[in-house]
Design brief:
The protein is an alpha+beta fold and 404 residues long. The chain has 3 domains: 194 residues, Multidrug efflux transporter AcrB transmembrane fold; 72 residues, ACT domain (Alpha-Beta Plaits, 2-Layer Sandwich), CATH 3.30.70; 75 residues, 2-Layer Sandwich (Threonyl-tRNA Synthetase, Chain A, domain 2), CATH 3.30.980. The protein has 11 helices and 10 strands. It has a 4-stranded antiparallel beta sheet with strand order 3-4-2-9. The longest helix is centred in the last third of the chain and has 45 residues. The C terminus is likely disordered.
């Protein structure tokens, strides 16, 4: 007779740890952690140096992210003061440890011309050129050009002088289109040039070696990206619930969905506590965590369903406990594999890779935990409710009819 092949198991399935008996205090811990995650979002809005529920990236908040390399050692607080003096309010300055003298700055401006400055410039143009002369002053957020439509021609140098008086720095003012259209193209100075000018005023000319990267996202675009990220999370959870309902029955679905929400909230809470940047990459990581957690929960639920029909002499909580023990080795080995890979990414990675890995590290831990201590107890509770409802229905007296 052929010998049955043996496979490596970290924890043998014949061990019987009492997971079900410890669910109440651990469920209470989960509820407390979820509440603390939401509470931290509120606290962050009042903490100095934070001011937002999460450290939303430029993707979500809107604004500009700019890397600045200096030729000499400067202090982040001095960089922040220089940016504030240059008109870039609420600037975040983060030193880049992997690059000497390099800083990552974030500020709300996406263009050298703000909406307030554009309105001030338009008002001054109407005052100097005449209200009836200025037909339209067009400027789009994030653009580096503006367009002025007049009812009669004017000298470009005169227009440029008015804009300068209004505090708008331009590279050029030139006619645009046909001569009788009286349209003038206003080429604005680049946002990086404005930042360089503000820093040179503080640290001296030539203090900025280079500005190698500039990225801007408008406030409306950022809001749309944030909303789309939330929708993608809810849609993923909705489709997962539909899959659970098709594959299992109603008792299994709610536990899975609550476990997934639990995992997503705790990952978000970890970002709220550490105030790491919350970006589109973080949303991708949370979606990955949801998929991983669901896969782990499905493995446990599959074993519970098999054992429920095989171990009919046992109570359902005992069946659940046995099933969790049988899949425990597989769960731990899979989780450890993912955890250590993402831990290496978290330690040696940089930028968004490190943020993605951090979310995965937290997600693997809470995902493994929720499969055992969140989804399974809810399944037991719903099963008890189902049995109680069936018993109540069977004990209800049947209505009898008396023949006339």
């Amino acid at each position: 007779m052929a010998k049955k092949p043996e496979f490596f198991e970290l924890i043998r399935p014949d061990h019987n740890f009492d997971f079900v008996g410890k669910t109440k205090p651990l469920l209470a811990t989960s509820v407390l952690l979820v509440l603390l995650s939401f509470l931290m979002l509120v606290i962050n809005t009042f903490l100095p140096g934070r001011g937002h529920a999460l450290n939303f990236s430029v993707d979500f908040r809107g604004g500009t992210e700019m890397r600045i390399d200096f030729t000499k050692d400067v202090d982040p607080s001095q960089v922040r003061e220089a940016m504030e003096a240059g008109g870039f309010k609420d600037t975040e300055v983060v030193p880049l440890t992997e690059f000497k003298g390099a800083f990552l700055t974030r500020f709300t401006a996406v263009s050298p011309l703000s909406a307030e400055q554009a309105q001030k410039a338009e008002n001054m143009l109407r005052e100097k050129l005449g209200k009836d002369t200025v037909r339209k002053f067009e400027f789009s957020e994030g653009g580096d050009k503006a367009y002025l439509r007049l009812s009669k021609p004017s000298e470009p140098d005169a227009i440029r002088g008015i804009l300068t008086a209004a505090g708008v720095t331009t590279n050029a003012v030139q006619r645009f289109g046909r001569a009788d259209d009286n349209i003038y193209e206003i080429v604005l100075i680049g946002l990086d040039s404005e930042v360089r000018k503000a820093l040179d005023a503080k640290f001296g000319a030539g203090s900025v070696a280079q500005i190698p990267s500039v990225g801007s996202v408008g406030a409306k675009a950022g809001e749309e990206l944030r909303n789309n990220g939330i929708i993608s999370l809810l849609a993923a959870i909705g489709f997962i619930m539909l899959y659970i309902l098709v594959r299992f029955d109603f008792r299994y679905g709610p536990g899975t969905v609550i476990a997934l929400l639990h995992d997503a909230i705790l990952v978000m809470g970890a970002f709220a506590v550490t105030y790491k940047e919350f970006s589109l990459t973080t949303i991708a990581a949370i979606l990955t965590v949801i998929g991983y957690s669901m896969n782990d929960t499905i493995v446990v639920f599959d074993r519970i369903r098999e054992n429920a029909s095989r171990l009919r002499d046992k109570k359902f909580p005992e069946v659940v406990n046995t099933s969790v023990n049988e899949t425990l080795s597989r769960t731990i080995l899979t989780s450890m594999t993912v955890f250590f890979v993402t831990l290496a990414m978290n330690i040696w990675g940089t930028g968004v890779i490190r943020d993605f890995a951090f979310a995965m590290n937290v997600g693997v831990i809470v995902g493994t935990y929720s499969s055992i201590f969140v989804a399974s107890p809810i399944l037991i509770w719903l099963n008890e409710k189902s049995i109680a409802s069936q018993k109540k229905g069977s004990q209800r007296p049947k209505s009898s009819t008396t023949p006339v």
